[in-house]
Specification:
Elements (H helix, E strand, L loop, with lengths): L1 E2 L3 E2 L12 E10 L2 E3 L5 E2 L2 E2 L9 E5 L7 E8 L2 E3 L8 E5 L9
Parallel strand pairs: 3-8, 4-9, 7-10
Antiparallel strand pairs: 1-2, 5-6
Length: about 100
């Protein structure tokens, strides 16, 4: 889902994490844009902005299978959020992680 100011809506949230398998089929996503940045400081933390920001916001192991994302590249991303922010995945709750590529 796309929104003009905020850009891409991350797949997987705290209330509905991504628990499946995503095969990108060797494709590359160029110029991914996600804008959930924090703008209002409140003490040591920002009071606004969003957490768990990335193409996939929150990835978590499911009850019957491991979550997996593979065969996917991202080039020239512009991604901003408050906490747990990354281009591919914002937050991962799994017991084993492996990455390849550069």
């Amino acid at each position: 889902m796309w929104e003009a100011v905020k850009g891409w809506e991350p797949i997987g949230t705290e209330s509905n994490p991504f628990t499946g398998v995503y095969d990108g089929d060797g494709k590359t996503i160029s110029n991914l844009y996600i804008n959930r940045k924090a703008t209002t400081p409140s003490g040591a933390y920002f009071s606004d902005g969003e957490d768990n920001i990335g193409l996939f916001g929150l990835v978590q192991e499911g009850t019957t299978a491991d979550a997996a994302i593979y065969n996917l590249g991202i080039i020239n991303p512009v991604v901003s959020g408050r906490r747990a922010t990354g281009s591919l995945v914002g937050k991962v709750l799994v017991s084993s992680v492996a990455t390849t590529g550069s």
